[in-house]
Amino acid sequence: MKRSTFRVLFYLKSNLKKNGNGVIMGRITVDGEQVQFSTKLEILPEQWNKAQGKANGTGLRIAEINRQLDLIKSNITVYYNQQMASVGYITAHKLKNVILGIDHKEHTIISYFEKFNAQYKLKVGINTTWTTYTKYELTKNRLIEFLNKKYNTKDILLREFTTALLQEFYLFLRTEHGSGNNNAMKNLQRLRAIFKYIATTGYDEFRDPYLGFKMSFEKHSREYLEKGEIDIIYHKKFQSKSLERVRDIFVFSCYTGLSYSDIVDLKTDNIRTAFDNNLWIMGQRQKTGVKFNVRLLDIPKQIIEKYSKNRSGANLLPCITNQKMNEYLKEIAKLCNISKNITFHVARHSFATLCLTEGVPIESVSKMLGHTDIRTTQIYARIIDQKLSNDMEDLALKLNKKGQNNLKEKVS
Q1: How far apart are CA 92 and CA 222, in angstroms?
Q2: What is the third-level CATH fold of 227-387?
């Protein structure tokens, strides 16, 4: 049986730090395979013996550096011999992971994140969307970036992931990526799902860093368009066919409440004649899997008819990417002299508020929107209450002003 070749040596990193020190690196070689790792020790170049791969000189600090290097080499060698004796095989990468505390038997946050995402990917098209999956991938990559910049590593042990580190990750998202509070909290919310997943695996040493961390979302008023604003957009003449198509699909959503992903998935067979002899959109929300039924009103009917002749395949409407849609919608708002920040999701909000303003019961609105919890729909009811309050405030100001003017006329 051929004997495995094995070697451990240390060398000084060529790029020096600002303090003039060089970082002492380790190199493991097994059967020609080489890996490098940082010992996290540093020394002045003139104190390093390149030939012997150790610190040169006298004094307590030099002695301690050499002691640490001997200990690292000894630990690697012991593990190498154990593995060769028991299984007869070991890789340089495996030895590196052992010395860094990232052995496959250990538990690290990124390894669990990857397992979670792999399982989550299998749910796409069943009870979740590709978009949601990519958001989990984004959070994982943001976490790797944070660990790399802050701690010079791409992964850490679970036992090292503390509440303080969680707070640092939050600040990293706010400062390095310019995330708002709610966007940063959404990333932490997805990360929390990973820790909940870890808890189900039965890992004995699991400690939840979220126990000492408070998730806090800022409340923002949901933007929506009133009926008059939707009419302005719908009747606006555009020179660009691209703007016209985006406008039509946006208005279609304003009168159906369908989200972007649901409209993308909308097929001709989703349009059916119901028991009342009216045409309805019948489908299942891609995000939640909840079924929805929405009656087709005249305007969305006209939009479907407009694109029926040039329809490609079974898709009902000619959709482009959500990002491009939102870019065009900003231009449309500008051309229509609407100062509100319009995104495609505003159409869904507009449908809900329009229905509630016109007296459609909240239970019916909730069912049409495909909400799993009526409390989600009640958010729009609060918007209507706020609008009512604002309208009454305007009325009160007008009446009070008129009353004061009448009083002045009588006095004069």
Answers
A1: 55
A2: hpI Integrase; Chain A (1.10.443)
